[in-house]
Design brief:
The protein starts with a helix and ends in a 28-residue tail after the last helix. The protein is an all-alpha fold and 285 residues long. The chain has 13 helices and no strands. Helix 3 runs parallel beside helix 7 and helix 5 crosses helix 8. The protein binds zinc ion (ZN). Zinc ion (ZN) binds next to helix 5 and helix 6.
């Protein structure tokens, strides 16, 4: 396996430390009340993520890195044409890649074939930092093509790609965590970043709420597309997917098989479609 020193010696240890720190912070300062055993979910989400981790290291990073090197040598892609100064290339990389990921996430929800896979991530019945690892390996495989294409079109340099990827993963850990930040701090952070309260609304069983807050690092894309929601208090959010609420149907084997089974409509087992009275738009509560 070829080494990716920036990822192997800096990125991975950093992300591991951040994971442990968030695990502690969400235990010490919980945001939403958890309904299920933390240990069960940790083990389940961890095992589910093992093929994903392998795919990231063996293909999802090496293939786009190879594409980035090739595009650089060939002078292909936006940033390879424009020859920005270093700082501007860094900013452009983060903006373009994060916005591209906004569309990728939107596609995961809107295209039924892709939703089959992304559904696995959303079926978690509580939301915390371990949910950040809960992705079906199929979704990771598809994202190799997306990431390679984005890197080539934008002309992202190989080192910038790894720096972006580490930041992207760190942001994913942060906004999935169940860490109760002081509301004032979160409101300030949320002027720029996707925060835990904001992403909590994206994991609601109310479909209109799930269909919002698709951002990963920056919250601006949701503002741009008018899909930003900050009006639901976290105590009022029920986490999960309406039709998949039974813990016994969410065992490891069933989760791996979920994309290949018939998909249920967005209804509670009772047949009822979860809705909420329209609330006045306000800032994070
Ligand atoms: Zn989603």
């Amino acid at each position: 396996m070829p080494k990716i020193p920036l990822m192997d010696y800096a990125g991975r240890p950093l992300l591991a430390c951040l994971f442990v720190a968030l695990l502690w912070l969400q235990w010490r300062f919980p945001l939403r009340r958890q309904h299920f055993s933390m240990m069960h979910r940790l083990v389940r989400n961890f095992v589910l993520s093992i093929p994903g981790f392998a795919i990231v290291r063996l293909a999802m990073l090496p293939i786009p890195i190879a594409m980035a090197i090739w595009a650089q040598e060939q002078g292909i892609g936006l940033l390879n044409w424009l020859h920005f100064p270093g700082w501007a290339a860094v900013i452009a990389t983060f903006l373009m890649m994060d916005y591209a990921y906004w569309w990728w996430h939107y596609t995961m929800h809107m295209v039924p074939f892709f939703w089959r896979f992304h559904n696995v991530h959303h079926t978690d019945l509580d939301l915390d930092v371990t949910t950040a690892a809960r992705f079906h390996f199929g979704e990771m495989i598809f994202s190799i093509g997306f990431l390679s294409l984005a890197v080539t079109v934008f002309g992202i340099g190989p080192i910038m790609l790894v720096v972006f990827f580490i930041t992207f993963e760190a942001a994913t850990l942060f906004h999935h965590s169940n860490w109760r930040l002081p509301i004032k701090v979160e409101r300030i952070l949320n002027l720029i970043l996707v925060t835990p309260r904001m992403h909590g609304i994206h994991h609601s069983i109310v479909q209109r709420e799930t269909n919002s807050n698709w951002g990963t690092i920056f919250c601006w894309w949701d503002k741009l597309h008018r899909t930003l929601r900050r009006d639901i208090p976290q105590d009022a959010v029920t986490i999960g997917v309406a039709a998949y609420r039974d813990e016994h149907e969410l065992t490891l084997g069933k989760l791996f098989a979920l994309p290949f089974r018939g998909q249920r409509e967005w209804r509670l087992p009772s047949g009822e479609v979860p809705e909420r009275e329209q609330q006045p738009a306000e800032r994070l509560t």
